[in-house]
Sequence to fold (240 residues):
Amino acid sequence: MLTQLIERLPLLKGLLDFAFPPLCSGCGAYFDEPAGICPECLEAIDWYDDPFCLTCGDFVPRGDSCSRCGEDSFLLFPGGNYTDPLKRAIVNYKFHGAMSLAGVLSERVIGCFESRILGLQPTLLVPIPLHPGREHQRGYNQAAVFAQALSRLLDLPVEEEILHRIKKKKPQARLRKSARAANVRGVFSTDPEAAAHLAEARLLLVDDVVTSGETVIEARRTLASSGLRVVGAISMAHGL
Fold:
C-alpha cells in the first residue's frame, strides 16, 4: 500500500526521505538506491569464493563434497566473512528492517555458487525458524526473507512448515563456542505430517549468519530424525 502511494505521489517519497533518510546499511552514509548498501561497502566485504564444510571446518575448493569427510560432508555456501561492513549490514537487516540486503546477498551467493548448489539437486529451501515469541517481537524471520530471495533465483520453493523452534534459548553469538552445541540441543521439532509428504525431498537449510554451525547442524539432525535429507546450507555470512 505504501509503495503504491509513493509511486503515485513523488512528494510523499521526499517527505519520507526527509524524516527517515535512506542510509547504507553497512556504513550509515546517505545512499538512495534500492540495493540499500553502497558500492564502497560492497567492495570492502570479504567475500567467500568456496563453500565451507561444517563437519571438519575446511573450505572445499571443488566438487560437491569434502575430500576429508566424504559422505559425512555438510557444505555451507556463505556470502561473506562476518566482519564489518557486512556484519553491520546484517545487524541492520535483522533488527532494523534493512530488507534490501537479502536481495543483494542472494544475488552474490547464487552468482558465485549456483552450479555447485544445483549440483546437490536440492528440491526445497528450509529457513532456520525463530522462536515464535522472538519472531513476533521482531516482526519477521530474517532467514525466511533471505530464503524467499534465494527462491526466486534458484526457482525452488520455500518450506516453512516442516521445521519449528520449540525452545527459546540464548542467542548463539553471546556464547563461547564450546557452549553453543548444548545451547541448541533439542530446540527444533518437525511436523510429522509434513515430513511424511516430503520423504523424497532434498532440503537446503537457509540462515542469515552461521558461526560455529551448531544451529544448522542441530536443524539437520532434527530433520534427519524424521527421515528427511538435508543436502547443504546457505547463509549470508560465516564467521567465528
Summary: The longest strand covers residues 229-238. The CA atoms of residues 54 and 217 lie 8 Å apart. The chain has two domains: 1-44, 47-238.
